[in-house]
Amino acid sequence: MRKRKMKSGIQAKYLKYMISLLLLALFLSSVGVWGYVQRNMTAVIVDKYEFMNEKMGLALDELYQKMDAVTADCIMDDNVQKSLRNRNLAMTEKMALSKYFSYIDLEHVAEYCYVDNKKNVYTKSYSKITYQDFEESGFADMLGDDYAKTQWFWAEDTLFGKGGRSLFVGRYVHSMDYDHEPGMLFLKMNAAVFYDFVEDRGKMEDEIAVGITAADGSVCMSWCPQNYVFPEQVSERVKELAASSESGMILQAEKIRGGVLSAYRQKDSGLIIFTLVPNEVLTSGLGQIFAVMVVIYLLVIAVAVVVSVFLSRIFTRPIRQITETMTSFDGKDFSKTIELHTNTELDQIGHSYNEMLGNIEQQLQEIKDQQNELRTSELNMLINQTNPHFLYNTLDTIYMLARINGEETTMRMIQALSKYLRLSLSKGSDTVTVEDELENVRSYMEIQQIRNENLFRYEIQSEVDTRKRWVMKLILQPLVENAVKYGFCDIFEGGLIRIRVWEEEGRLSFSVYNNGTPIQREVADQINALGKFPISEMKNCFPDKKHGYGVVNIITRLRLKYGEDVELIYEVHQEGTQVLIRLPVDGTQETES
Length: 593
Prior knowledge:
alpha+beta, five-stranded antiparallel beta sheet, 15 helices
């Protein structure tokens, strides 16, 4: 029953709006020609200035759009963006930024003030405005909560200290790259800004009155015939219009005491430009024209109602079909498509919906296929395909030869390598006990100590039962390898690698610390942000494969194994680098396939 009401509501609203529009047109037309002047002269005069009012309103729209585009260009300027990112700009950069706003593509800018997110103020060279002056001016409250829109407001000049009320243009200035507090930009416009869109001002002052009001109804500018004073009813009517939320031509040729009033409201700024054609301009004699127009409009309304009923039935039928098909889609069945043949834009809507369903179905399948391929390739990437028995037997033979020849260092190297490879192969399993993982990284570090004598020492501290906790293998060795390769690249001795394992709040945690050269903070930030990217896009963060690629491999394998409940965080210390890994506690061995 509810669906039927919704369906019939489209047709009812269409008829309601159509009839209302026609009645409004009839009412405004009757007001425009009421009075009985020379046959068609009054209608011509009213139409002329009504069109002029709308044209001036559109010019006001264009001015706002231009100001919005210019302020948007200011936000995109490199120096402006740099002022939001950098803590302090050089003096030359500050001077350049202060002068930049003098050359923006906008006329009639009397003053400007840009305040970045670090309380730096940029104005014309002769404007000595401090941040305290800016705070006391109250201008920061003028922008409101709309963070992406240019604001116009007519206000007392408490910022530049010039006194009087003026038109101000304000906008928040956001960083394009980082989530910082925004800056604020304010432009003070001189009175000539209103002259640009008031056409033939001198001629109009001899015939009609033109005014511009702010969003609160206060008059910004006005032009009137000589010795003419706006009737009080005009001021009250304009204030009523200012309190409404309508925009565009909000008043068309309304007959009030004193003449015929038209008004256009700029939707973004709330400024209203209105024209009043005085009664002296309008003469009497439009009764016959008015009667003819009433008859014509009644006929138009009657025809429009009949045609609207017929057309509404034609168009609401496919709309109902589209609504029913879209609302019944459950995200699983992609076979319910829309077939329309109305030879209107509705056919394109149905066709676009069908294409959207096909694209969604195809993308879902591609995502599933990619995830399966990614899971298979990543989990098997580090599985060595060498025959374990052949490799172990070969290492044992080399070990016995070294033992016969008394080569202790070679024996240690082979024994450590054998342990390391035994865990790396792990009979094809990708999980091992924490004890085996620590034994693997210990073997790797012993090999590195033999290769790099006196370069570093290591400590391993475990606060868990390493035989009862399981973890994906080979997650510590790449981190230790990075410590040796990059952390100790500038030293020859005295290095330290400290590995710690503990449980905290139901999570298994590992830390790998080295006291070598700290990792670059930019690289650390890139790595720490990898968790925000889909798995398939993480490799694109380090396309050169020189920095972070091994860590990307670790994070990829961990996320494929444990899902999104994984953390890998790089901490940059004054002396060294620490990597933290937090995983869900896994107390059971993975079932081998």
